[in-house]
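Q: Hi! First time doing this. I have a protein sequence and I read that you can turn it into a structure. Is that right? Here it is:
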Amino acid sequence: MEKDDGRIDWSASAEKISRMVRGFQPFPTTYSMLEGKKLTIWKAVGQADTTEAKAGTVIFAKGDEIIVKCGEGTALKIVELQLEGKRK
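A: Yes, that's right. Below is the predicted 3D structure, encoded as structure tokens:
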């Protein structure tokens, strides 16, 4: 496997992405890019979603809760993440 295999395709279902998060640890990890920095996802849970947002859009963020729209009418609740150069 290569590092690029862990890059998240937000158009995939949340279930598929959450499986990647679990399966790609400790290498190559799953990640996305945020303002030019790598954002590693360490724990996440898929759920159903009915919003009309574009895949990859943060649809809810408050306190420690972040939910991102995915494909196939799903969303991903991010439980633990790490911005490049920062702690989890």
